[in-house]
Amino acid sequence: MRTQNEFQPRQVNTKVLPLFILLFVSAAFCEDFKTINGKEYKDATITRVEPDGIVIKTKSGITKVHFAELPKEIQERFHYDLQKAGAYSAEQAANYTTYQKQQQDAQREREEAAAKNNAIVAQQEAAKNRTQALQVRYEELQKQEDDLLRQIGEAKQPGPAYYGGKNNRTLLHHPNPQKSQLPLLQSHLSDVRHEKSEVRKQLEKEQR
């Protein structure tokens, strides 16, 4: 009958064995590749094997090397099949074409959305500018109306006063030189008030 100590070495070996396997596998996948054109990939690690080539990782980064670029012994090592590789490449090309179309469609949708948004912003800015212009014009017309009312009021006033008549004791007035302008001033006032009314309507419409 074996003692507990007789089983101890086997348990230690069982724990150490995976470490040796891991080191061996890591070393096995770290190798140099040379294409038929002479290009070398030093200390390359194979990260993926695909029907038409291998994906390797080097210090320079990750690269895919097609089997058509590699020597025959490497092709045989990875069971390269020209027919399967062609079908896979065609499938990948189709997938890439679909991906490109999806990206183009997405880009077009983004551009259309941006164009619509820009159009809305432009419309809002134009409406804002129109409102500001109408407000400025309304204020100008209000000032013109006030000024015309002042001039009309002055034109309706009697002219300079003086004493005349018998013994120069009667208060009289000279003719007001501005009185002749009353028809023109009143006509101008009517035009200003009409335009001011139209501007106010446009303002109310823009502010709805």
Largest sheet: 4 strands, antiparallel
Q: Count all strands and give the number.
A: 6
Low-confidence stretches are 1-28
Structural class determined from secondary elements: alpha+beta
What is the CA–CA distance across the termini? 102 Å
Present the secondary structure layout.
Elements: H1 4-28, E1 30-34, E2 40-50, E3 53-58, E4 61-66, H2 72-77, H3 82-156, E5 161-164, E6 170-173, H4 182-206
Antiparallel strand pairs: 1-2, 2-3, 3-4, 5-6
Helix pairs in contact: 3-4
Can you summarize this structure?
The protein is of the alpha+beta class. The chain contains four helices and six strands, in the order H-E-E-E-E-H-H-E-E-H. The strands form two sheets. It has a four-stranded antiparallel beta sheet with strand order 1-2-3-4. Strands 5-6 form a two-stranded antiparallel sheet.
Task: Describe the 3D structure.
By secondary structure, the protein is of the alpha+beta class. The chain is 63% helix and 17% strand. The protein has a four-stranded antiparallel β-sheet. A two-stranded antiparallel ribbon has the order 5-6. A hairpin with a 2-residue loop joins β2 and β3. The chain is rod-shaped, with a radius of gyration of 49 Å. The chain starts with a helix and ends with a helix. The N terminus is likely disordered.
Question: What are the defining features of this structure?
Answer:
single chain, 208 residues, alpha+beta, 4-stranded antiparallel beta sheet, 4 helices, 6 strands, 63% helix
